[in-house]
Design a protein that fits this description.
This protein has 343 residues and is of the alpha/beta class. The chain has 9 helices and 15 strands. The two termini are 30 Å apart.
């Protein structure tokens, strides 16, 4: 019998896991944006001394995990499990990084929702007593994503008005049980609940319009979460979406409005926040690394500082692939919600 759930999709953690440390690494373009001062590492170029963009992305994932561990004076050997993923074929960035870290590993694919998915599953492991310390991480890279999903950069293709720039970045959270007695970067951030998203598809087929593909799932998860918990929007300082960008955010607010929810006053989108308007990146940022880097560099610090008391973090993912595109399939979306509180 289900004993730690309310409603159809929401989990309640009776021993809420703590986030004790976090780290974020971003590329040079992201390092020119409005959140530049918050990131742990800003790359000077997008290859980071490696032979390819793909190997640079792998390196970002690994170093984000190591950086978060170092802050808490932990080693990979102290982890009960590493959970994470990326956008590349068979999540190769996370897989090869896990090989170097030599820790038990659960590879996840939720597209750009992976950071929230890793926190959700990691919290289940900790709350259930199956793990005492886990690392939750995600990464993406502009150049690798362009090569895989759209057109190689060498072709010099032009973007459309609804396009978003895949964030070159990686983020990691260290999640522990309440008995953790080690060094903490964050003393007050914990995860009391989470909502598992479901796949929503309104028939979007344009691979250059990720925001429209993901917005319906974000609206669905928000409505389910509020219904399951019996809460109103005023229970949250921010409703955070992962990477809807400007167009997707407008669609999200409109879809919520159709359901009687006025989210405009408390909506925060990581894809809109990571780049400045003067950077001319069309509709904003996307990719696994978008919400992962903004959460772990910026939002967790605001929670720890008391600037925020409770947020709903909904990383959003467009579940497309080159294979589904060749079958003329539409682009399904998903969003998982994780409640983050200061206590």
């Amino acid at each position: 019998m289900k004993s730690k759930g309310i409603g159809k999709q929401t989990l309640v953690f009776t021993a809420p896991p703590h986030i004790v440390s976090a780290a974020a690494i971003v590329g040079d373009v992201e390092g020119e944006g409005p959140l530049a001062d918050y990131f742990d590492v800003v790359l000077q170029d997008d290859i980071w001394g490696e032979e390819s963009w793909e190997k640079a992305e792998r390196k970002m994932f690994e170093h984000a995990v190591r950086c978060a561990l170092d802050k808490a004076e932990l080693t990979p050997a102290k982890l009960d499990c590493l959970l994470g993923g990326d956008l590349l074929n068979q999540i190769i960035s996370a897989n090869f990084a896990a090989r170097e870290l030599q820790t038990p590993f659960l590879g996840l694919y939720g597209a750009c929702s992976t950071m929230a998915e890793s926190l959700l599953i990691g919290s289940m492991l900790v709350d259930g007593g199956y793990a005492a310390c886990v690392a939750c991480a995600a990464t993406s890279h502009f150049s690798t994503a362009e090569r895989q999903y759209r057109q190689p950069l060498e072709m010099g293709g032009q973007t459309t008005p609804t396009a978003q720039r895949t964030v070159t970045g990686a983020g990691c959270s260290i999640v522990t049980d309440s008995a953790y007695a080690g060094k903490r970067v964050f003393n007050h951030v914990h995860i009391p609940a989470a909502t598992i998203g479901r796949v929503v598809d309104l028939g979007i087929t344009d691979a250059a319009n990720m925001g429209a593909a993901m917005a319906p799932a974000a609206a669905d998860t928000l409505c389910v979460h509020l219904g399951d918990t019996g809460r109103g929007l005023d229970a949250y300082d921010l409703i955070v979406t992962g990477d809807l960008g400007t167009f997707g955010s407008e669609m999200f607010l409109s879809l919520c409005g159709d359901r009687g929810l006025d989210v405009a006053g408390r909506h925060f989108d990581c894809g809109c926040a990571i780049f400045g308007l003067d950077q001319k990146v069309d509709c904003g940022g996307s990719g696994c690394g978008c919400s992962a880097s903004v959460l772990n560099a910026y939002l967790l610090r605001r929670l720890e500082a008391g600037e925020l008391q409770r947020i709903l973090f909904m990383a959003t993912g467009a579940l497309l692939s080159t294979t589904s595109g060749m079958q003329n399939d539409s682009i399904p979306g998903i969003a998982h919600g994780v409640v983050l509180e200061r206590k």
